[in-house]
Design brief:
The chain is of the alpha/beta class. The chain has three domains: 6-166, Rossmann fold; 180-297 and 340-359, Argininosuccinate synthetase, chain A, domain 2, CATH 3.90.1260.10; 367-402, no CATH class. It has helices at 15-28, 46-56, 67-81, 92-110, 126-137, 157-166, 242-255, 280-296, 299-317, 324-336, 367-370, 382-402; strands spanning 6-10, 31-38, 60-65, 115-117, 142-144, 180-183, 188-191, 221-228, 231-235, 238-239, 260-266, 272-278, 342-349, 352-359. The strands form three sheets. Strands 3-2-1-4-5 form a five-stranded parallel beta sheet, sandwiched between helices. A five-stranded antiparallel beta sheet has the order 10-9-8-13-14. It has a four-stranded antiparallel beta sheet with strand order 6-7-12-11, with no helix packed on it. A hairpin with a 4-residue loop joins strand 6 (180-183) and strand 7. Helix 3 crosses helix 4 (92-110) and helix 9 runs antiparallel to helix 10. It is elongated. The protein starts with 5 loop residues before the first strand and ends with a helix. 36% of the residues are buried.
């Protein structure tokens, strides 16, 4: 008997991907290899996950711990770039998807698979991030996206539960979750429920790694973050691993109500969506990194980097991680980071983050030049000619208009 083709599925162990395993078997007559990535979402227990995948019909379940790679190869470059989507979103889900898809393709190669599959819907951004990465990594692999497949006829969570029950797939049937969540080491996002109605208020009852500012301590907290070449290396004087840096700052920032975001964003597919994001540690890192750049980068470099930051954020959000442009921007960013070394102490108080103090061997701030007194390097009378030259176009135009 001929061997069946293999499909590698990006697997989380949740309802959707548990149902997709038998669906792929029934509709494509394939063997399914489940691939699960641990990027710090906190619920990846290898043995139960493998058993769950097997009970759903998978011939194998491969689990990889990708937390360190996620931080060093995806989070740190994005942090160094200062990339923030639409001025607010710190790209937590956006950064993780290319990493997961990359390793999914690596598993597909190892298993000599015919296709890869994912459980992202046709309305979201993740479908793009997964599929663009597949194309970049292994362009000849077939892509099966059930939610966009004509054979897929499950329209709701209830449909999926019924589908699982008929096939004796162990799915914990519970009250429908109010919020849809996606988490990793960097953030936790919440969508759905009352958030689908922008005219309705909510009380942040979905929070899991943060508190609201009202529940934060009544006394401020302080945290010192050190950077070397733009990369965080220690917290409060202790050199710890990249993963531990984010875990530590998540606890500190979450305790003080920092990093909460309620935003309406423009999805790549053309629609708007509303979500609540918890990014406590990431928000502290962005604040400290930005403060240090203000201290050490010259005006032109800093302003041009802000343009690069916006473009970088767009590329990451749109799933264009594995592209020549993103790699080229990394080269520019890395060059700017050669002087982004120093320490920044932040003051945290009920959701607010302010720069308490900072120091760097590459600081361009001169207290004499920055003060009001006359100094040898700056003669205030020089400004007369400078302003006359700068204002000449405006003066010429004003004279013309008066005629």
């Amino acid at each position: 008997m001929a061997k069946k083709k293999k499909v590698v599925l990006a697997y989380s162990g949740g309802l959707d991907t548990s149902v997709i395993i038998p669906w792929l078997i029934e509709n494509y007559d394939v063997d399914v290899v489940a691939f699960a990535a641990d990027v710090g979402q906190g619920d990846v227990e290898t043995a139960p996950l493998k058993k769950k995948a097997a009970n759903s019909g998978a011939i194998k379940c491969i689990v990889k711990d990708l937390k360190r790679e996620f931080v060093t190869e995806y989070v740190w470059p994005t942090l160094k770039a200062g990339a923030i989507y639409e001025g607010a979103y710190l790209l937590g889900t956006s950064m993780a998807r290319p990493l997961i898809a990359k390793h999914q393709v690596m598993v597909a190669r190892q298993e000599k698979a015919w296709a890869v599959s994912h459980g992202a819907t046709g309305k979201g951004n993740d479908q793009v991030r997964f599929e663009l990465t597949y194309m970049a990594m292994e362009p000849k692999l077939k892509i099966i996206a059930p939610w966009k497949d004509p054979k897929w006829d499950l329209q709701s969570r209830e449909d999926a539960i019924d589908y699982a029950k008929k096939r004796n797939i162990p799915i914990p049937v519970s009250k429908k979750k109010i919020y849809s969540e996606d988490g990793n080491l960097w953030h936790l996002s919440h969508e759905g429920g009352v958030l689908e109605h922008v005219d309705k208020a909510h009380n942040f009852d979905m929070l899991k790694i943060s508190v609201t500012p009202q529940k934060a301590p009544n006394t401020p907290g302080y945290v010192k973050i050190a950077f070397k070449d733009g990369i965080p290396v220690s917290v409060d004087g202790k050199r710890i691993s990249p993963v531990s840096i984010i875990e530590t700052l998540n606890k500190i920032g979450g305790k003080h109500g920092c990093g909460l975001l309620d935003m309406v964003e423009n999805r790549l597919v053309g629609l708007k969506s509303r979500g609540v994001y918890e990014t406590p540690g990431g928000t502290l890192l962005y604040k400290a990194h930005s403060a240090l750049e203000q201290l050490v980068l010259d005006r032109d470099t800093l302003q041009y980097k802000q343009l690069v930051s916006n473009k970088y954020a767009q590329l990451v959000y749109d799933g264009l991680w594995f592209t020549p442009l993103r790699e080229a921007l990394d080269s520019f960013v890395d060059d700017t980071q050669k002087v982004v070394t120093g320490e920044v102490t932040l003051k945290l108080y009920k959701g607010n983050i302010t720069t308490h103090k900072m120091a760097s061997p590459f600081s361009l701030y001169d207290p004499d030049l920055g003060g009001f007194a006359n100094v040898e390097m700056y003669d205030q009378q020089d400004a007369n000619g400078f302003i006359r030259c700068l204002g000449l176009p405006m003066k010429t135009r004003a004279l013309l208009l008066k005629k």
